[in-house]
Amino acid sequence: MIGAIVGDVAGSIYEWDNIKSKQFELFGAGCRCTDDSIMTLAIAEAVLESGGDCSVLAQNAIDCMRKWGALYPNSGYGGIFRYWLRTDKPLPYNSFGNGAAMRVSACGWAATSLDEAKALSRAVTGVTHNHPKGLMGAEAVAVAIYLARQGKTLLEIREHIQANYYPLDFTLEQIRPTYEFDGTCQGTVPQAIEAVCESVDFEDAIRNAISIGGDSDTLAAIAGSIAEAYYGVPRSIYERACSYLDPTMLDVLRRFEQKYSNKIIE
């Protein structure tokens, strides 16, 4: 799960000022946690409180996201989601925005089977992003994380995504010159997965994602969540990312890692 936070923090200064290059300081001046990290931690807390029970996970996801939204109100939420966080009757709003995919990594880590990864993802996603394309985007990320945890190769992960979710019929080099901001799952998730498939290590996956431009923090959060499960996160990067988290955030991260593990490499 820390992989999503690393990507979010690293990409936060490039969302509205795309860099279109892999040559940049990983944690540049002005980096911060955005809504991607906040909602990733909210879903992690919901998963912890639910203990894998999908019958209560959806309601816990609603409660935790609204709680964290109130704790961190100025984190860059989209307009409709901001309203959802505050309304008396939080109902799903048929969204296929990429927020569904950037927050789902805890489900990929908590799952004990491919079917469970899908079920957990649907439970936490359908409370807001109940459009089929929103559900699919989140599920693709949770599934990729689960497959990476099971030791599948990047080629095997790519083949599974292409067979079940998205065509990955492009390279980053091909799309980098013209790729622009796209807030949808279908315009973000395939690109983030491709960033991992073309990478050589965790940091390279983050740099790949940010280098194509667009919604940089969300692209890198999605790529980072998958890359952590595949490569592991170097301890130096892990510790630097944790320095951006306050005690409330760190508490959830530590509790989640204690129960579901992480993948930190020396």
Summarize the structure.
With 266 residues, the chain is mostly helical.
Descriptive tags:
2 strands; 15 helices; two-stranded parallel ribbon; globular; single chain; 266 residues; 2% strand; 62% helix; mainly alpha; ADP-ribosylglycohydrolase fold
Describe this structure in words.
By secondary structure, this protein is mainly α. The chain has a single domain, classed as Orthogonal Bundle (ADP-ribosylglycohydrolase fold). It has 15 helices and 2 strands. Strands 1-2 form a two-stranded parallel sheet. The longest helix has 18 residues. The chain starts with a helix and ends with a strand. The mean pLDDT is 97.
Segments where pLDDT lies below 50 for 5+ residues? none
How far apart are the termini?
A: 17 Å
By CATH reckoning, the class would read Mainly Alpha
- Indicate the radius of gyration in whole angstroms: 16 Å
Shape: globular
Largest sheet: 2 strands, parallel
Secondary structure layout plus pairing:
Blueprint: H1 2-11, H2 35-50, H3 54-71, H4 79-86, H5 99-102, H6 105-110, H7 114-125, H8 132-149, H9 154-164, H10 172-175, H11 189-197, H12 202-211, H13 216-231, E1 233-234, H14 235-242, H15 247-260, E2 264-265
Helix pairs in contact: 1-13, 1-14, 2-3, 2-15, 3-4, 3-7, 7-8, 8-9, 8-13, 9-11, 11-12, 11-13, 12-13
